[in-house]
Structure formats: C-alpha cells, structure tokens
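Run log, item B.
One chain of 70 residues. Sequence copied directly from the ordering sheet:
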Amino acid sequence: MSHCRLQRIDRAESGILYFMYEYFSDDKNPENDQNLIPTGVALWDAPAFHKEIYSVLNTVPTVNPTGRIA
C-alpha cells in the first residue's frame, strides 16, 4: 500500500467531513456511480453547516465517547 493511500486512510479515520468528500465525491471516486457529492464540489467548498456539524461529530468518538448530540 502506498504512503499516500495510507495517509488518506489515516486522515479519513479521524475526520468525518474529510471522509465524506474523499470517498463519496465524484472528483475523488469517479468510478462510483452512486456518489453523494457532485463533480466540482470539494472539501474547501463545504458549506459552513457541514463544517460545524462534522466538527461536533468528530469530538464524540475522540473526546467524549459517551456524549450525546442534541
């Protein structure tokens, strides 16, 4: 497995927003015909809401595993 691929997997493990754009976008996975994120939409274009909610979601398993999101 290449170093770049390992870095991609490692980063996706701890970042839900990154994971979504990396594995469910047409730009990163053109061979998948069921992607959720269309061509031309990239991680840095993510709406502020997505960045905020994924930031909260990232803290649950890493910082507060028994926490609840309301």
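Observations after the first pass:
- The chain has three helices and no strands.
- The CA atoms of residues 21 and 43 lie 6 Å apart.
Flagged for discussion on Thursday.
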